[in-house]
Amino acid sequence: MRALMIQLQADGKREKVLVDDWADLPPIKEDQVRTETLLSGLTNGTERNGLIGGNYAPSDRSLPTGSGYQNVGRVIEVGSEVDDLEVSDVVYSSQGHYGYCTLRPHKLENLMPHERHDGLLIKLDPRVDPTHAALFGVASVAMRCCRNADLRMGERFLVIGAGMVGQMAAQIGNAMGAHVTICDIDQKRLDIAESAGAVEVTVNVSEDGWEQQIEDASYDTILDVAGVVGMEDKLIRATKHGGSILFIAGRFKVEYTFNLGQHREINIKQNSHFDKDDLDNLQRLVARGVVNMAPLILDIVPVLEAKPIYDRLRDQPQELLGTVFDWR
C-alpha cells in the first residue's frame, strides 16, 4: 500500500516521503468500512512538529511512521453491521496519508489509544468540494477553538497567526458575530485573509507592528495559534478585564506574569483536537457558503510530488498554507 511516511535521512534530519510497500490492511470487521483515498490534506502544525522533532513528535526509534489526520476517500467496502454508509459514498475521516483506510463509523466505548479517531468521520454533503474537505481537520480545530472561546455577537476577537487554523478561526469567529482582527508577520497571508472577506482588520506585526497597532485592553478574546515564545504578557495586556486567551498545541510551556493576569482576571484556556460535533458544524457552514476555504488552498499536488512540499514544511513553513495531495 502507498503511504506518506516520516523517516530519518543519513544525516539524522527527518524527511517525509511516499513509500509503495507499506503494510496492507487486514480484512474489515462487521462494524467497519474501507475507503480508497482520493485526497489528503497537509496538517501544517502537527506534521511539521513531527518533522522537526517537536514536543509531541514521534521518537526516532519509532520511525518510519505516518502522521496527519485529514483524508477524503471513497467507500469501497462496507461491513454487515454498518447501515449509514454505502459503497461509493465519499467521506472525510480523521486518518493519515494512506492509500486505503479502515474506518469504524460509530465510536465505541473503551477505545484503545490507537483507535481514538474511530467515528471521527463524516459523509460529504454534495455541496462540499472534496478538495476543500481534505482540510476539514485543521478547519475543525479552528471550530473547536471558536466554540471553546464562546464568542458572542459584537465581541472583539484577535487571532494571532494567519496560517490555516488562524484563517479558519477568523472566518468562523465572523460567522459567530465577532469583530475579527487577524495579525501575522507575513503580508501575503494577511492579504489572503482580507480577500476571504471575514476579517475587519488585518495587522502586520513585523518589526514594531504590535506596539504600534495592538491597543491595550482592547480585545474580549485572543486566540494564539502562532506560539511565539515570550508573547504571553503582551497578550494579557491586549485583553480586556475578564477576557480570555486561548492557546493551541505546539508549545512546551506557557509563562506569564501572574500579577498581570490576576489584575485583569484573565481566563486562560487550552485547545486540543476536535470532535464529531465540530466536524458536523464545520460542514454545515461550508455547505451553506458561510465560510470559504477556496482562497486558502494554495497547492494541489499529486501525491507522487509530496516530498518537496514536506521539505518546504520543515525548512520554510511560511511558504505553505492550504495544501492538498491528490491520490487519484
Describe this structure in words.
About 3% of the residues have low confidence. The protein is globular and about 60 Å long. Helix 3 packs across helix 4 and helix 3 crosses helix 9. The chain folds into 2 domains: 167 residues, Quinone Oxidoreductase, Chain A, domain 1; 131 residues, Rossmann fold, CATH 3.40.50.720. Helix 8 links the parallel strand 12 and strand 13. The chain contains 10 helices and 15 strands. 27% of the residues lie in helices and 26% in strands.
**CATH architectural label of the largest domain:** Alpha-Beta Complex
CATH top level class name of the largest domain: Alpha Beta
CATH superfamily of the largest domain: Medium-chain alcohol dehydrogenases, catalytic domain
- The low-pLDDT segments are 108-117
Strand/helix succession:
EEEHEEEEHHEHEHEHEHEHEHEHE
Strand count, sense and barrel status of the largest sheet are: 7 strands, mixed
Give the CA-CA distance, first to last residue: 14 Å
Number of strands: 15
Number of helical segments with 4 or more residues: 10
Query: What fraction, in percent, of the residue positions are helical?
Result: 25-40%
| Rg for CA atoms | 20 Å
Instruction: Quickly give the structural class.
Output: alpha/beta
Q: How many discrete domains?
A: 2
Question: What's the CATH topology label of the largest domain?
Answer: Quinone Oxidoreductase, Chain A, domain 1
Beta content comes to 25-35%
Mean pLDDT: 93
The coarse silhouette is: globular
